[in-house]
Amino acid sequence: RGGVGLVRMSGPRALTIGRQLFVGKPDLGSHARRVIYGQVIDDLGRPVDEALAWFLAAPSTYTGEDVVEISTHGSGAVLELVVDRGRGLGAELAQPGEFTRRAFLNGKMDLLQAEAVADVIQAQSAGSLQAAYGLLGGALSQRVGRMRDDLVDALARLESLLDFSDDVSPTEI
Length: 173
Known about the structure:
Helix content is 45%, strand content 21%. With 173 residues, the chain is α+β, with helices and mostly antiparallel strands.
């Protein structure tokens, strides 16, 4: 409960379901990344709350999928209606970490970055937040990638030395 509530949907049916939950001018999804003012409606088409909504088109989203976000007043009754109605239209409740899992599976982040999301959420100090955010930004992933490339290069040189030891001197490899 609070002043503002946010319901986020991600996946191929997000826009279809979002259009059945929210009515605005212009229509939700007519312009990606544009906030639209309108109303959340119940299953009979009656307005329940004033809201803002926006559509974010794949692949340029956190999850790599289409995303719809509806921002309502933070009333438990309003949020419950939006969630229940969304579920009735085929949406599924996200499990903890679901959006990050989807981002990982869709190649939007690597495993180190996905784990860093949890570290950012659980950070208790400015130092731990800074360290977690550094991991999230991909600094460690880049270092590991460079080390992997160096190891692959060394392995290739070693294999070529073994395969062609009679034809090539070690200084040529």
